[in-house]
Amino acid sequence: MATSTHNHSLKTDILVIGSGIAGLSAALKLATDYSVILIAKASLNEGSTNYAQGGIAGVLDPFDSIDAHISDTLDAGAGLCDPKAVSVVATHAAEAIRELIDLGVPFSKQVDSESSFPFHLTQEGGHSHRRVIHAADHTGQSVIDTLISCVKTHPNITLLPEHIAIDLILNQKRNRCLGTYVLNKTEKTIYGIAARFTILATGGASKAYLYTSNPDTSTGDGIAMAWRAGCSIANMEFNQFHPTCLHHPKDRSFLISEAIRGEGGILKLPDGTAFMANYDPRADLAPRDIVARAIDHEMKIHGIDCVYLDISHKPRDFIQNHFPTIYERCLKVGIDIAREPIPVVPAAHYTCGGVITDLEGQTSLNGLYAIGETAYTGLHGANRLASNSLAEGLVFAKMAAQSIKKAFPLTVPAEHEITPWDCTGITDPAEKILVSHDWDELRRVMWDYVGIVRTNERLKRARQRLRNLHKEIDEYYHQHTVTSDLLELRNLVMVAELMVMSAQRRKESRGLHYNLDYPHTHKKAKPTILKPK
Fold it and tell me: What is the DSSP letter of 339?
């Protein structure tokens, strides 16, 4: 059945695209004064935030300091962080965390502690202090469940799950975003949503890779839509690979939290030899890029499929209390982590680049904001410090909301009528094999040629293959009925090309980008900025 259109459009003050920690937080802050429509392309809780195990970084310990948090972030970012963005997040993270506490997020409590601060803080790789607040090892799920319960009962928020954005609607003369066209996946209808302000909070693009810790929703939709609308993109070559994802034939790539290493977990070879001290004086607490490359190197030189993360020297009660989700998930596939090590491999995890914004989340397009993993604020630089991502989502949701509230009286109301979506000449595909085939090929190309370690030749091959794929997918898109799978594939091939283009421009190795043909790091660091023609 072909997709149909509605001749009418919805109208709202604020349109939020995405239901992760950034989108939900922004919606709640803006709904106190304005009407808000929030769309999610799957269920409300099916996003990367829901799978975030570790926690949220913020200065909550009296022995810690904002300066120390800033220093750790700058160090992990390998010279490419924007100090102003780092300062904004480090300064405001604790306040944002306290707001979550007030909303009722069940963060883990300290046991038998006389401290005035009742919550347990853990230390993760790259941090010099314990500053990561968490809810056992299911922080993201606890945060999302709390935020969703709040938005569901808010009278000014309309929730539209199972709706996927197609493209932004523009007024070229005013250089302004007017909203977006959306596909209602359930009813298979397309219509416009007009808004004074649109917020992209669609997450990252790690599904571009064959192995990823991310859910299926991480297809770079917001980045691709913003690029097509004329926004500049930065630092897409820096895709973080989480060092430790479960490697087991009975389970898909399941994230094994960095907090395990923070609480004493040791990476080992199959014979039990610990190896991280050979790569960094911080050993198992080194930043993720160093750990991921070390594991990748050990796997290649030894010809092994995985390495092992061992926390079995800790008491069973300690493991069950600190890591209940990981403990149960591993037990389901026959691994008792209190008795044996966990087989792990690196997997694509976090997109450090994105849509360029200012420190209030504004893009170069009037009325369009981008927050969370979709955005490039300069916080992460060439590598993200553990648990800074949820903090970034919270802080920039607040900054964007404040900016919109200031700008709102100066804007005209949302357009009453938006041109209906044009389905002229569109037909249902005779078969769907092209979409599934191109999806597989794209992800294998990215894994093989644009992975943890790169070369000029690999990047050249990737660019050629992706260019052909992009042309094929674009032709298919303009001839056939719009589906969710097709929209995601269209966005993913666009973002994959941006990743390769960015990687080819960086003639050095830095942070998450390691090129064997340019193994040295330049003294002066500059972000890689791509501008649409």
Answer: T
By C-alpha distance, which of 330, 138, 124, 337 is closest to 246? Answer: 330
Phi/psi at 8 (5° precision): -100, 165
Q: Judge contact between 478 and 417, C-beta under 8 A.
A: no
Q: In this predicted model, what pLDDT tens digit does every residue of 276-334 receive, in sequence order?
A: 999 999 999 998 778 988 998 898 899 898 999 999 999 999 999 999 999 999 999 99
Domain(s) labelled CATH 3.90.700.10 in the chain stretch across 242-349
CATH 3.50.50.60 domain residues, the chain: 8-238+352-410
Class of domain 433-530: mainly alpha
- What pLDDT, on a 0 to 100 scale, did the predictor assign at position 214? 86
Which residues are known to be catalytic?
288
128 backbone dihedrals φ, ψ, rounded to 5°: -90, -5
Euclidean distance between CA atoms 205 and 324, whole angstroms: 28
Tell me: the pLDDT tens digits for 449-487?
999 999 999 999 999 999 999 999 999 999 999 999 999
Q: Model confidence over 204-235: pLDDT tens digits? A: 999 999 888 888 899 999 999 999 999 999 99
Residue 70 has φ and ψ, to the nearest 5°, of: -60, -45
Domain with CATH 1.20.58.100 in the chain: 433-530
CATH code for residues 242-349: 3.90.700.10
Q: Which CATH architecture has domain 8-238+352-410?
A: 3-Layer(bba) Sandwich (3.50)
Query: Is a pLDDT exceeding 50 seen at residue 93?
Result: yes
Q: Let me know the angle formed at the C-alpha of 113 by 108 and 115, rounded to the nearest 5 degrees.
A: 95
Sign of torsion, CA 410 406 389 137?
negative
